[in-house]
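To start, one record:
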Amino acid sequence: MNAQLRFLGAADTVTGSRYLIDTGAARILVDCGLFQGYKVLRNRNRAPFPVPPESIDAIVLSHAHLDHSGYLPALVRDGFTGPVYTTAGTSELAAVMLPDSGYLLEEEARHAARGRWSKHPHPTPLYTVDDARRSLDRLRPVGFDEEVPLGPELTARLVPAGHILGAASVRITSAGRTAHFTGDLGRPDDPLMLPPRPFEGATTLITESTYGDRAHADVDPEPLLATVIDRVVKRAGVVLIPAFAVGRTETILLHLSRLREQGRLPEVPVYLNSPMAINVTAIYQRHRDEHRITPAEIERMYALATPVHDVDESKLLNLRGGPMIIVSASGMLTGGRILHHLAAYGPDPRNAVILTGFQAGGTRGAALLGGARSLRIFGEDVPIRAEVVNIDTMSAHADADELLSWMRAAPAAPEQVFVTHGEPAAADRLRVRITRELGWRARVPEQGERVEL
């Protein structure tokens, strides 16, 4: 492959996945994600894209999570007109998630203007709902393992990655040389999704490293959930569960419905306050070959929770009080309806916040995990006296041991490995383990760096 790879994101952080391949004859962007977390990272979303958007011939998306797809509306608005190749599942999820992202960005700008807590006199959203809807016209669903032509002697192939519905690893091939982008790699024993396909080898491997410096505890999350919920219900409290609307919410509802079936979940109301999560139910039903849950389980999961559709219903939950359970996005407390619930119930020590996934540095979730007892929400400092519990055994990301086990399936060592999409400590620790345990050449690239493929 006579091509150059440029790391435009996820090179010094766990968000903003963007990889540009330039062969001279074609420019291909693998993933088009939002930067999240620290302000210095989020500012990159506002910076001009490093190359003219109209110069990019095609985009290949690994999956629908916003740190991999959420910048697409801005790129299309600014001039990108090519096709966006991805799986059918990702295409359907993106049709829900991207307009929702635009709505939340608009809502955040309105709150900032009304509350005058923005440093900008006229705060504007990164993009709008209309921008997001227009970007959906670029989506071109393809099947797993379908050879997709991208340019002269350049093809892409998407292979199952587990993680969430539609998630794929991206294989870009030219002249017998292949670059394999893991995207977000799922777990071999995930209760919801099927395992990722074993690594078939590549000339170059670009791997994620979200949990590159740790192993998930070998603990069943259901007893932990049951214990926390029982404890909070006995003190008439409210259990807040921030959850990614796609993937994590379904896993949480699956565990809660199983606990209810076993008689281990108190008979208290469960509210699903995430319009996006409600909307993806039918998508899971249409793609049953990608996940483990049966139609009966899907039915029980959504029968368990009362869906909250409009804003007025959401506001009433803040007046209701406990005992009750609220599952709501976003999973890292970066936006959405969960922030209103946190402002209402966070100051009361009878209540609890259960964190169930990775919390990127600079997010409110990471601050809570680090022991913060006050959070800035809608321009005000809100005291957090509620119990904070972390149950990260529900993560949909492979941990360090699982990543290495997946790599060992390769028939031969890649010529080079680039460790990306992780916090600096996680990425470097995984680099060390790849070098020492597998004997492969691995390093952590820098933001904006160019390398030869």
In short: The domain at 4-214+396-452 is CATH 3.60.15.10 (Metallo-beta-lactamase; Chain A). The CA atoms of residues 32 and 69 lie 5 Å apart. The longest helix spans residues 88-115. The chain has two domains: 4-214+396-452, 221-394.
